[in-house]
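Entry 14. Structure prediction run on the chain below.
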Amino acid sequence: MNIQETNKINYRLKAIRASIGYSQWILSNFTSISQSRISLIEKGHVKPSQREKEKIVKALDVSLEDIFPNERSEK
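Output returned:
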């Protein structure tokens, strides 16, 4: 994955989260992922694990592909 793809993922994650009115803190509570880690993921400083991706998409009620292209899951 190149930097441009990473930036698109980070932007999609933040945009979807904000569009439903979730702060990083709220998403943190729904996913049991620390707010600081969510911030790092959104900034592209760390890559989320597969389990973190699954928790995030479940909390946001979107498919894995909605945020992370080239990955598929059942919604």
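The longest helix spans residues 3-19.
Filed with the rest of this week's runs.
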